[in-house]
Structure formats: C-alpha cells, structure tokens
Design goal:
Order of helices and strands: HHHEEEEHEEEHHHEEEHH
Mean pLDDT: 89
Radius of gyration: 20 Å
Number of helices: 9
Largest sheet: 6 strands, antiparallel
Low-confidence stretches: 1-12
CATH architecture of the largest domain: 2-Layer Sandwich
Strand order of the largest sheet: 7-6-5-10-9-8
Shape: globular
CATH class of the largest domain: Alpha Beta
Distance between the termini: 27 Å
Number of domains: 2
Strand content: 15-25%
Helix content: 40-55%
Length: about 260
C-alpha cells in the first residue's frame, strides 16, 4: 500500500475492542451496580451485544454480576477514584503533576473532575492547599452540574445537545444558597460566556464561603473529558482573582495539549 493511500476501514474486531474499552471506562467512572439496559443505552449498542461483552469480561475477571442482576467492575481494579486504567488512568497520570504545580503556584486546592452518568461531577484527583485557611475538596466529592464551575464546563463543552437535554431532564433546579443561579435562560447565557473565555467561575453558588474556577480538559477531537478546578475560600479568591483565573486557564490548556499528544 502506498503511503498516501487511505487506510482500510476498521475491522469488526477493532470495533469490538473499542466497545469493550468504552464499557470498562463507563463502569469505572461510576462505581456502582449497572443494569444491562442502562449500559446499552449509555453506549448506544444493542442489549444482546452488550450482554455478550459483559459475559466475556466476567469470564476474564474484569466485571461481576450481583444477585440483583446489576453489573460492576471488580474492586481489585478500582481505587478511590475509579478504574485505575484506560483513558481516565492516562488522564490522571498526565494531570497530577500539573495539579501539584498549580496548587503550589497559587496556594489553593486544585482538583480534577469527570462527569458521571447521573450526571454529576466526581473528583478523581485532588491536591490540597497547604495554606492555613483553605477550601478542602476530598477525593470522590461530587458536585451538581448546573451550579459548579466544573459542571458548567461540561455544559459548555459537552456533546451537542447535552445542556438542553440536562435542562429538560431537570426542569426544577434547586437553590443551594441564595446565590445559586438556577434559571435555565440565565444559565444558557453563562454557558455561552464560558465557551468564549474557556473557563468558568462560581462564587458561593453551591457552598457559602467557597469560590472556584474551572477549565475544560479537551481530548484530540475537542471532546471534554474532564475539568480542572481550583477551590478557594471566597476572600482569598477576590484578593487574587486575576492571577487565579489566568493560572487555571493556562493549566487547562496545557493538560489538554499533553493529553492530545499522549
């Protein structure tokens, strides 16, 4: 084959391998029991094909079926953040040194979050600030999508139609504090602004006394795979607002570039 000829289409075996990896990453991101119907719907594959993949993975010791007929990844393959392998494992390996450098640079807590199937944002890596007064975000913390900086990154940079499907599925968004923005039209304007500036800012909308800035982590095809977030006590954020915003923005771009070339 000449070097300038197009590559042949992917074979069925490659497609099956991709589906298996998608399945493992799905089960690893949201550590719980999954119904067959849920998995097939999330991966957009027939239930019969999904069942065959699950049975194969179960035979090889990757997943297990519980008495209530739900499927989950074996605990030996998990840590507190989820599956230790796959694209998420690579992302964590790339991002952790950047999180440490960012936290040290601005003396704030830096975390990495991914979107779960619920959907909500789950923290999969965290570097806590060493400052005496700080905002701590433990590993595994979950945030609502609509009123967290990371969640709004997923609304802004998610797949086409994700934001509208989210609003349709959650017609009455709760208020966590008096500052929570829960009006869909106002949120749409915020999402458009986040797309333009490529970072999101949240001031006490979820927790009084806490402010955060987040930036999207994009894969090769421009798909958001995670969000980088810095959490601060509110006075500290306002004292260093310009510096923190710039640092988060730059670090998000750098992690995205590293992931895209990995």
């Amino acid at each position: 084959m000449k070097s300038d000829e197009p590559l042949p289409p992917a074979s069925g075996s490659v497609k099956s391998a991709q589906r298996i990896l998608d399945l493992l990453e799905l089960l690893g991101t949201e550590v719980r029991g999954w119904r067959l119907t849920e998995i097939a719907s999330e991966l957009d594959i027939p239930k019969s094909s999904c069942l065959m993949l699950l049975q194969t993975l179960a035979q090889r010791g990757y997943v297990e079926k519980s008495q209530d007929n739900s499927w989950s990844m074996r605990s030996a393959l998990l840590d507190q953040s989820g599956w230790v392998g796959g694209r998420t494992g690579l992302l964590r390996q790339i991002a952790l040194p950047e999180l440490k450098a960012l936290s040290h640079r601005i003396a704030q807590t830096a975390v990495l979050g991914v979107l779960t199937a619920k959907p909500e944002v789950k923290v999969i890596d965290t570097v806590q600030s060493t400052a005496d007064i700080r905002y701590e975000i433990p590993l595994g913390t979950r945030f609502p999508v609509f009123c967290s900086a990371m969640g709004r990154c997923f609304l802004a940079f998610g797949r086409t139609g994700f934001a509208e499907s989210y609003f349709a599925a959650t017609p009455k968004l709760p208020k966590f504090t008096r500052y929570t923005v829960n009006d869909p039209d106002t949120l749409r304007n915020l999402i458009a602004e986040i797309r333009r500036q490529r970072h999101a800012i949240n001031i006490e909308e979820h927790v009084i006394g806490a402010a955060s800035v987040a930036a999207p982590i994009l894969d090769r095809d421009g798909t958001i795979v995670a969000a980088l977030n810095v959490g601060c006590v509110t006075p500290s954020y306002f004292e260093n607002q310009t510096r923190i915003n710039a640092a988060v923005h730059e670090t998000g771009l750098r992690i995205s570039a590293l992931l895209q070339t990995a």
